[in-house]
Amino acid sequence: MSKNRILILILVLFMTGCQQTVKTAKDTQPRQEPPIQEAETSKPTSSGNDATAADLPAESPAELESEPLAEVRVEKMLTPAQRLTQQLIEQGESALTAERLLTPVEDNANLYFQAALGRDPGNYRAIQGISAIVDVYTQWAWQSAQRREYSKAARYIDSARSVNPEDPTIVEMDFRISDLKARRENAARIAIKKRSEPTGSDTDTTEESVVKAGQFRLPEMLFSLSEDEIIAQIQPIIDEVSKTNQSLAIYWPNDKEARLIYQIINSRVTEFRVRAMTYHRADYMVELQQD
User: Fold this and answer.
1) Can you tell me whether residue 200 is helix, strand or coil?
2) Rounded distance, CA 102 to CA 158, Å?
3) What gap in Å lies between CA 248 and CA 234, rounded to an integer?
4) What is the C-alpha separation between 213 and 204, in angstroms, rounded?
5) Could you give the C-alpha distances from 246 to 105, 261, 266, 290, in angstroms and in order?
6) Which stretch of 68-82, 181-195, 271-285 has the lowest confidence by average pLDDT?
7) Is residue 15's pLDDT more than 50?
8) If you write DSSP's letter for every residue of 146-183 in order, what string do you get?
């Protein structure tokens, strides 16, 4: 083999090796991935009213739920029987506000509350409603007693008992009224006794203490006495008027009490209507008039 041919062969082998080296280097270089578009995570640039749902703050279910809807859901959760009981209680509370406590018979607070308790024993609102009725009647009884209207006070206490006879408020108020009445009657007796006691010699009489024929003096604290004692004080006047058919003059500083004295006398004289005039004077006296 000649030297030229050997030289050409070596050159060819060298060139072939260089090409393979260049190709291997290209294959080993890291590939560059195309940029990933973050359309889902990035926020779109928007302005004005172009805000999307992603821009709005998240709200909890409780915030999204409005109160009327919540009430509707509660109403739907009640059974028909529970809804009827609730309706009865609401009617009772309305009647209580309007002071329809025991009347009218078909539309009063006690009727509705008792019906609700019959359907649901132990219902808190119904129990509170019945207690409120008792409170109203006992307060009316106390106010009447303070005005010395003891008969009316007793009627209010009886009404309270008809609602709930086991309520301790009734017992307490009944005791307060009885105690008030007893203290007043005792004070009136003491005052009458003091007025009847002589202040000096038995022969020393004043014009004020002289009672003429046909004149009847009454205690200043007449209406602090019990009903029986009031009648006992007025009975001599009733007897005299029944016999003589004379008209009366009532001298009393309190017009209401003066009219009450007349009503007592007239109601017990059944043969005729008693004629009378009242005078606003502190004489505490009833006088038979000469016709």
Assistant:
1) coil
2) 12
3) 13
4) 20
5) 47, 16, 12, 7
6) 68-82
7) yes
8) HTT-HHHHHHHHHHHHHH-TT-HHHHHHHHHHHHHHHH
Interacting residues of 86 by C-beta distance below 8 A, sequence separation 6+: 78
Q: How far is CA 145 from the centre of its chain?
A: 23
DSSP assignment letter at 279: E
Residue 2, burial from CB neighbour count under 10 angstroms (0-12, 13-18, 19+): exposed
93 vs 56 pLDDT, higher one: 93
Pick from 126, 152, 128: nearest CA to 139: 152
Contact 143, 126 (CB under 8 A): no
Q: CA 160, CA 106: separation in Å to the nearest integer? A: 18
Res 271: pLDDT: 85
Single pTM value for the model = 0.53
| Interstrand relation of 248-251 and 276-279 (parallel, antiparallel or unpaired) | parallel
Phi, psi dihedrals of residue 167, rounded to the nearest 5°: -70, 125
The per-residue pLDDT for 62 is: 44
pLDDT of residue 11: 66
- For the chain, the straight-line distance linking the first and the last C-alpha, in angstroms and rounded, comes to 188
Q: How far is 289 from 245, CA to CA, in rounded Å? A: 10
Per-position b or e across 173-206, b if 16+ CB within 10 A of its CB? bbeebeebbeebeeebeeebeeeeeeeeeeeeee
Q: Which two tokens stand for residue 271?
A: 């043969």
